[in-house]
């Protein structure tokens, strides 16, 4: 059909191939009903339609004849069906790929919108607030130490009251004896005076209050600039930890020896039991770690 139409228009196979930008061998094979099984049927149909359009004839009958001939050729018909199935499978895979990309984009947009709508995080507590909290805890520790020392002081006071109470009857007895006895019996008051002296000596022998001992181990701190430090006593109790501002002063009492970690040793003036501690032995810009009183 194609060859007859070409010959009627007095065209050669080479002229048709040149106008269609195809090989002359391909035009020859189309006219001889020789189709390469490696060429997909879709391309063959395209060649036939282009050839028919060039000749100015309808392409439907020629394509129908080509498909009928392909159905009669088992090998070529199987190839056509395989190509059709492969084309359908590729189209399905493309649709699945597009759907996957669309789902990924929707998920990404949803996650971004969720993150955007989240409330801002609660700001962390400032260093000043932490410092004030540590200062309050140090004050409470000092108050606890003072309250613990109060019963001891009370015991000392009670001892003094007991001595006074014991001395009062003795003094009254001495006065009564002096009033009732004659002058010759005056030496009998001597034992009473001796007893009174013993009681007074016992009262003077009462040991010093623990408050004096705590004063002996008291740390006095004065800050010339902002400084971070940590102070612990022999029991491991943290007496002070945190940032102290310039001009601040602090007194600490605990169980010596004290272990100190000072971030800026040049900013701290320190004394133990009234004796100043030399802080110039530490280099500026380095953290100082030392024990008071020192073991050396």
Characterise the protein shown here.
It is a single chain. The relative contact order is 0.06. Strands 4-1-6-7 form a four-stranded antiparallel sheet, with no helix packed on it. Strands 3-2-5-8 form a four-stranded antiparallel sheet. It is of the alpha+beta class. It folds into three domains: 71 residues, 434 Repressor (Amino-terminal Domain), CATH 1.10.260.40; 80 residues; 76 residues. About 16% of the residues have low confidence. Helix content is 58%, strand content 14%.
Question: Can you tag this structure with a few keywords?
Answer:
alpha+beta; 434 Repressor (Amino-terminal Domain); four-stranded antiparallel sheet; 58% helix
Concise overview:
The strands form 2 sheets. This protein has a 4-stranded antiparallel β-sheet with strand order 4-1-6-7, with no helix packed on it. It has 3 domains: 2-72, lambda repressor-like DNA-binding domains (434 Repressor (Amino-terminal Domain), Orthogonal Bundle); 129-208; 217-292. The chain is an alpha+beta fold and 296 residues long.
């Amino acid at each position: 059909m194609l060859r007859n139409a070409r010959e009627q228009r007095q065209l050669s196979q080479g002229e048709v191939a040149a106008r269609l930008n195809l090989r002359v061998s391909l035009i020859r094979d189309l006219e001889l009903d020789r189709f390469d099984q490696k060429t997909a049927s879709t391309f063959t149909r395209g060649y036939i339609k282009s050839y028919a359009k060039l000749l100015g004839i309808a392409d439907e009958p020629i394509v129908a004849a080509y498909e009928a001939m392909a159905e009669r050729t088992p090998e070529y018909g199987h190839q056509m069906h395989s190509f059709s199935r492969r084309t359908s499978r590729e189209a399905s895979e493309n649709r699945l790929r597009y759907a996957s990309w669309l789902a990924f984009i929707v998920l990404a947009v949803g996650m971004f919108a969720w993150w955007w709508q989240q409330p801002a995080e609660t700001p962390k507590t400032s260093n000043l607030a932490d410092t004030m909290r540590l200062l309050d805890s140090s004050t409470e520790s000092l108050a606890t130490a003072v309250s613990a020392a109060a019963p001891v002081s009370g015991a000392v006071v009670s001892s003094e009251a007991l001595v006074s109470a014991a001395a009062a009857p003795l003094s009254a007895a001495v006065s009564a004896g002096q009033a009732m006895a004659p002058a010759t019996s005056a030496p009998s008051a001597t034992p009473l005076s001796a007893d009174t002296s013993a009681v007074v000596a016992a009262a003077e022998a009462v040991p010093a209050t623990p408050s004096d001992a705590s004063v002996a181990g008291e740390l006095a701190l004065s800050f010339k600039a902002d400084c971070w430090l940590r102070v612990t006593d022999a029991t491991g109790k943290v007496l002070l930890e945190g940032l102290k501002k310039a001009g601040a002063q602090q007194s600490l009492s605990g169980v010596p020896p004290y272990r100190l970690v000072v971030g800026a040793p040049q900013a701290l003036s320190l004394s133990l039991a009234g004796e100043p501690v030399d802080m110039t032995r530490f280099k500026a810009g380095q953290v100082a770690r030392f024990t008071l009183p020192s073991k050396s």
